[in-house]
Here is the input.
Amino acid sequence: MPSGRPKTFELTLRPEERTHLEALTASRSLAAGLVRRAQVVLLSADGVSNRVIAARVGLSPAMVSHWRGRYRDHGVGGLHDAPRSGRPRTHDDAQVARLLRTVLRSQPSHATHWTVRSAAAKTGISKSTVARYFQLFGVQPHRTKRFKLSTDPFFVEKVRDIVGLYLNPPDHALVLCVDEKSQIQALERTQPLLPLGLGYVAGVTHDYVRHGTTTLFAALDIATGTVLAQCHRRHRHQEFLRFLAHIEQAVPRALDVHLILDNYATHKHPKVRAWLARRPRYHLHFTPTYASWLNQVERWFALITTRAIRRGSFRSARELIRRIERFVTQANAQAHPFAWTATADSILAKLTRLAQLISGTSH
Here is the structure.
């Protein structure tokens, strides 16, 4: 008669099961317990021992074994908590579905979107219950996210061109993401900053005195993450030509230069074109219209804005420029490239889904 502990069984997953479990682990709205159990199953299917899994996800080895068994016997449904005892539900599935249809498919007559109170008044469900269902199903009518679809007739070709430079840059060449951040205001706060403390955030006055502006021209080297930068009072083609001359001096003569630019008129000025025509080592790659997010220097602009400009108080434009120059110097000393992972096909597929959602043809 066999004795001792039973042999641990192996979990194997079909491709569709793995895809489903990976989607569960990537969710930000599902219960943390369900996400952790999905992680247990995925790690177990990869051959990781119960003890190692327990240490990674914060469960005991016994609980890891328990959820492995639940998945083996009941599939994904076994990872959910069993119904608990208590009073019967006040609202059945039909009432919950009616609430969700009301919020997702209609608009209140007096407002642009539903609130917990207006949805409760419309459906007859209490405010606290509506709030609970909103949280359970991830419904957030009070929030929006911004988007803009490109109307460029050569959108696909430009995306493939620029993403190709990011993922497979040419040999003996430098790829620079170039743009300008215009009209950066030198704002002096009317009162001193309230310092950060335990239990409260830093305070910045909402009013300020303006002391002029500057325009920051920047060229991000995608291979190293370093930036060539200059500040000018304006952002005409004259200033852009000075910045191109700065790039010309900084880049070794033996290298070709690929510039990724947006469609701002300054970048296509006849004098700019003439300057580039006299220097055949320069190659221009324009982002599609309304798709400046393809230019990596925009991400760098976001960094310098949040870390060096937005909370600052500057008594003059010169002081603002010194702050910018100091940030550039320090950032270049510890620079590293941005990790671009999106392929052209994945970008186009995502935008196709968005277009289908807008047009109502998605399934």
Remarks:
- Residues 317-333 form the longest helix (17 residues).
